[in-house]
């Protein structure tokens, strides 16, 4: 994706709503630049909850052309029926999108408006739907009541349509990451390896089940009676190498050739991954930690026996020397 040559486009669905404001970058109390919404009519700071501080698209665009602001903003409300999905730090300088963002966009499918963020390294995704409430994670934020600093630099310049089921899928999946997903005890931070997706795939490809893993990743499930069994096997392999991390297993699976309509069903996908996690007796980090501990115990035992042997030899020599004295 050539992020430097993207034209400006605002969907008519948004332009027809009187939810527009202006925004500018201003330092907060810690000196960090923050996007602040402004009332297009009277040019004071706009409220994200008071419609009287908003305007039509044409009014906001006209005021923006006079200068003094960084861009147009849009205020999302539950009444509008529009949802705002914010993906941070997911686009590199070459326009490549991270695996996590690709997974989210794959779940949503076609029918959303997507633009680059102001930094050019994030994505704004808009579509119609309903969610129980907004939430915010490190890589993903989903809102039904938020201000968005628009750029119009659309990589998917389409009118948003109803994506209620897809947004609920994302809500159910990522909102619940705050809760515990597995009965396994957490892996201690001091032994957790935190491998990247690329490293996990590389190690799994070269591991004991490497040939099988490569076949499953390519979409070949000819070794199994059904594709569902193949789905589970791929998740089981990934559970070992990904340290039973639900999101990592899910993300890497979405890059495989086994993805199909059934996999996009939340209940099936969640149950398959969770069963693979629950049945995993030892993950890679634990395996490495165990091997390291075994090696330490072996070396400790070896040195102990070696020291005892040297001590005995020294005592024997001493005894022989004493015995030989006149």
Q: Strands of the biggest beta sheet: in what spatial order?
A: 7-8-4-6-5-10
Mean pLDDT: 86
Helix percent band: 25-40%
What structural category characterises the helix and strand content?
A: alpha+beta
Work out the helix count: 10
Approximate shape:
elongated
List unreliable stretches of 5+ residues: 178-182
Radius of gyration: 29 Å
Oligomer: single chain
The description of the largest β-sheet is: 6 strands, antiparallel
Give me the strand/helix succession: HEEHEEHEEEEEEHHHHHHH
- Distance N terminus to C terminus? 94 Å
Number of strands: 10
What share of residues are in beta strands?
5-15%
Q: Can you characterise this structure?
A:
The protein is built from ten helices and ten strands. A six-stranded antiparallel beta sheet has the order 7-8-4-6-5-10, covered by helices on one side. Strands 2-1-3-9 form a four-stranded antiparallel beta sheet, with helices on one face. Helices cover 40% and strands 14% of the residues. Helix 7 (227-241) packs across helix 8 (246-253). With 326 residues, it is of the alpha+beta class.
Task: Jot down its keywords.
six-stranded antiparallel β-sheet, four-stranded antiparallel β-sheet, 326 residues
